[in-house]
Amino acid sequence: MVDTSLWKRDEKSQASGTRTKFWLKVLNQLQVGDSIEFALDPENVHDHRAVEVHTQSGDKLGFIPAFYSGWMFEIIAKNCSYEAKVEAIHPLAVDHRKVSISIVGEVNRSVDIQEVLEDKDELRVIMY
């Protein structure tokens, strides 16, 4: 259920690839409502549309799960307007489920939603 002209829904995503002691220190400093920033990582050997997740101070939390990364990669690459915040923190969850992120924004006309959704290579199911 994606509106092909506007993206005004909440996308809930968990940061994945988060398994270091440094990350646990960063996690302890996070608070619900904190702003989150993203960075494209097209050179990533596991996912050419990888999107890094960073705190507002620049600390790397991990990556957007591959299931969502193709979508977010396009949103960021096409300079769409969005806001990302920490929605929930689950300290006892497995690493890739510890941080829930809420993303709200709009898709501009240069994003071909159908192309993103039909990219079967990128829409991989993540097992939790």
TrEMBL record:
Keywords from the named record:
Hydrolase, Metal-binding
Return one GO MF term.
zinc ion binding
Gene3D superfamilies named among the record's database cross-references: 3.30.70.2330
Pfam families from the UniProt entry: HIRAN (PF08797)
The name this protein carries in UniProt is HIRAN domain-containing protein
Q: Which residues form the HIRAN domain?
A: 10-107
Species of provenance:
Planococcus antarcticus DSM 14505
